[in-house]
Amino acid sequence: MMEVKQESEYVKHHIQKIVGFFASMREFAGQLQSKGHHVYYLKINDKDNKQTFDKNLGAIIKEFSVQEFEYQLPDEYRLDRQLRKYCDALRIDYQIYDTEHFYTHRDELKEVFKARAQYRMEHFYRVMRRKHDILMNGDKPEGGEWNYDELNRQSYDDKIKVPALPDVKNDVSGVLHDIQDAQLPNFGFIDAERFTWPVNRTQSRKLLRHFITHCLPHFGTYQDAMDSRHDILFHSRLSFALNTKQLSPQEVIEAAINEWKKRKEEIGLPQVEGFIRQILGWREYMRGVYWAHMPEYGSLNFFSHTTKLPEFFWTSETRMNCMHHAIKQSLYTAYAHHIQRLMITGNFALLAGIHPDEVDAWYLGIYIDAVQWVEITNTRGMSQYADGGIVGSKPYVSSAQYINKMSNYCEDCYYNKSVKTGDRACPFNSLYWHFYERNRELLQKNPRIGMMYRVLDKLKDREKILEQAELYLKNIEDL
Ligand SMILES: Cc1cc2nc3c(=O)[nH]c(=O)nc-3n(C[C@H](O)[C@H](O)[C@H](O)COP(=O)(O)OP(=O)(O)OC[C@H]3O[C@@H](n4cnc5c(N)ncnc54)[C@H](O)[C@@H]3O)c2cc1C
Ligand code: SF4
Hints:
By secondary structure, the protein is mainly α. It has helices at 5-8, 15-34, 53-63, 77-88, 108-113, 121-132, 173-181, 201-215, 239-243, 249-262, 269-293, 312-315, 321-333, 338-352, 356-366, 372-383, 400-406, 427-438, 440-443, 450-458, 462-474, and strands at 13-14, 68-72, 93-97, 136-137, 140-141, 186-187. The longest helix has 25 residues, at 269-293. The two termini are 45 Å apart. Bound molecules: flavin-adenine dinucleotide and iron/sulfur cluster.
């Protein structure tokens, strides 16, 4: 096992992300050793560490006169190519094994959709539900419906108390010291004596149990809600444990279903179905899109966006309260839930026309769960529509109206959520219409969007709104 600069420097990572990965690797190595396995472990600041996989592998194969090299398929395209190339040049035998940490194999999505140009998640999800017999009643979906999203769109109303974080605390000062010693670039904050992310299976299972006991009964209901007093609400924070393979998606889904079966009065079907759709549906679907479209996916830029990412993405210093909260929380915790990523930071980046490369680098760096296969498909695909509609059927953009409906951010904002022009007009309002106007040619024919253009063309202050947006775009750093 090796901690290498190659992996820590290809993008600037949040300090909690680097610490989380290394701490989990060290724990795992320790567990293997305690069971009698021999583990050769290179720490980031070890003198023998040559800091790339190729160089370290070469040295290990030579030192131990290795006769056969075996590896498990990695999840990232970049590593996949590197290892294949490495093996092509190897003079010893090698074997490759598939990972068991997904429901699907890499090419399954392509097989499900065959020659279709567009892949819709909902179709894929239904195929998965049937194939794995999850929430099914014979050939019919449990409860008669495949999807209960309509019921899952409430803002947070204080009616249900948000549970405290589960008791997971790690002292990761040693790992932090080694990272600092190796001078790895990083950003963000960390409390190294009280690190709250799970670094082993026991802690990951504790997180899972906490979620299904306290949060699952309300997961679907408040899935889209945002609240400045509660960073996590009823979300699971399981993505890091899942993506680092401390938990398998199968055991997470099984635990949720078993809990639902035991407490059907308390945990409605929409709650458990909403949760399962994220893992069996979105997570597997994104992985399939990734393997179907890499490496081209990494350079798609449907709207030809060119703007630089504003500095406030790294500092949270902006008067837009929604952006300030979502970014500050991310800098402190390396976490934001899905709607904060999609409808606050992602929404702003798309409305402002930020280059998808810059948006990708930010998301890949800042979140503890960010691994390219799931980051890029969510960022470039779902959030930035840079793939022109492979993942989503239309861009996810909104004005202050949606943000105000789903959060309390607008209450304390410098900007006025209800106005589109003038000094304190909410930037989301004018940028929203500017986005549609400047992308008219690309979007007008989309049947799901056409109506927006009829509204735009009838807007009373259309010209003034577009001028306001231009002003904001020109002064984007001062928002
Ligand atoms: C712009 C953007 C970037 C994102 N980057 C990442 C990323 O780098 N890594 C990552 O794991 N997720 C990413 N997501 C998806 C999603 O936001 C996170 O999985 C989720 O917020 C993690 O928090 P949670 O574990 O509390 O999730 P919950 O809301 O509790 O959901 C449960 C689980 O479902 C899965 N899931 C939910 N939504 C998605 C989705 N859209 N795609 C794939 N899996 C999903 C995750 O494994 C998650 O742990 C991104 C979303 C957006 C909009
Ligand atoms: S008024 Fe606008 S900028 Fe302020 S919090 Fe609401 S949506 Fe965000």
